[in-house]
Amino acid sequence: MGIFFTNNPNFYLLKGLEIICGIAILGGYYKRLAMVILAPIVVNILLFHVFLAPAGLPMAIVLTGLLAYLAYTEREE
Asked: Does residue 4 have a pLDDT over 90?
C-alpha cells in the first residue's frame, strides 16, 4: 500500500486537484467543472475499494453517493 503514497508526483497532482475542486464546490465557483474533474477520481476510489481494499468500501460508497446527489441537485431543468 505504501507504494501509492511514496514520492509520487501524480499523488501530489491528485491531492491538489481534490483540494482545488473542493474549494470550488464549497465556494460556489465552477461547481459543474469541479464535479466533472472529481467524478473519475471518485469512481477510481470506489473501484479501488471494491477490488483491492474492501475495508474502506462504506466510505467510498458514501463519497460516491454525495457526488451523485450534488450532480443531481446541480442539473439544469
From this structure: no
Cα(20)–Cα(10) distance, rounded to whole angstroms?
15
List, as own/partner pairs, every contact residues 18-26 make where C-beta atoms lie below 8 angstroms and the sequence separation is at least 24, other chains included: 25/70
Please answer whether residues 41 and 18 qualify as being in contact, where contact means their C-beta atoms are separated by less than 8 angstroms. yes
Cα distance between residue 25 and residue 7, in whole Å: 28
SS3 (DSSP) at 51: helix
pLDDT digits (tens, 9 = 90+) for 39-62: 999 999 999 999 998 999 999 999
Q: What is the pTM of this model?
A: 0.83
d(Cα 65, Cα 53) in Å, to the nearest integer?
19
Distance CA 11, CA 50 (A): 20
